[in-house]
Every structure is written in structure tokens, then in C-alpha cells.
Amino acid sequence: MRHNLFDMARLTKRHVEDMMSSYDTDPSQALLTAIRIVLNRHDIEWDSAVEMLPDHFPADALHRKDTQALDQLLTHLAECRDLQKS
């Protein structure tokens, strides 16, 4: 189930800083925290969050926690502060 892009929040500078500072320790948890904020779904876990991402994110690679896919999602969230296609 993909999430409606119009219902998304944007990350604040503080959210991005927190995500970046915790990414090296636990990349998927850092991203999950940010995704929960953007989707306003604080109860979801990793696999459910990945399923809610828009189609332009590589769900299969993110489910596997592929480093390149995680890094791309991190970059997108840090630069755009949301999940809309840039």
C-alpha cells in the first residue's frame, strides 16, 4: 500500500541532523525514524514502511537493506526532506 504523497510531512533540520548522526550506527533505524515522521505513522516497522514508500524508491533493495539503496534514501531525505520525487 503506497502512501498518498499529499498527506506527507516534511523533515525539519533537526530531524535530518538526527537521522544523519545515527545513520552509521543503525542505517535502517535512522531511516525508519525519518520515514515515520514523514508518513506520520509512528507505529510502523521497517517492512511496512518500505511498502508505503512511493514507487520511485527500490522496495526490493530496501527490504534487503542494500547499502546503496539505503544511502540513496538517506540522501533523498536529507536533501528533499520528504518522499516526493525530486
Helices and strands, with pairings:
Layout (H helix, E strand, L loop, with lengths): L12 H11 L3 H13 L6 H7 L6 H5 L3 H14 L6
Helix pairs in contact: 1-2, 2-5
Oligomer class = single chain
- From the alpha-carbon coordinates, what is the Rg to the nearest angstrom? 11 Å
Contiguous low-pLDDT stretches (5 residues minimum) are: none
Structural class: mainly alpha
Count up the domains.
Answer: 1
Query: Strand fraction band?
Result: under 5%
Largest sheet: none
State the end-to-end distance. Answer: 21 Å
User: How do the helices and strands follow one another from N- to C-terminus?
Assistant: HHHHH
Shape: globular
The tally of beta strands, per DSSP, is 0
Average pLDDT for all residues: 93
Helical content stands at 55-70%
Helical element count? 5
Mind explaining what this structure looks like?
The chain is an all-alpha fold. It has helices spanning 13-23, 27-39, 46-52, 59-63, 67-80. The longest helix is centred in the C-terminal third of the chain and has 14 residues, at 67-80. The two termini are 21 Å apart. The model has no long low-confidence stretch (mean pLDDT 93).
List the main descriptive attributes of the protein structure presented here.
86 residues; mainly alpha; 5 helices; globular
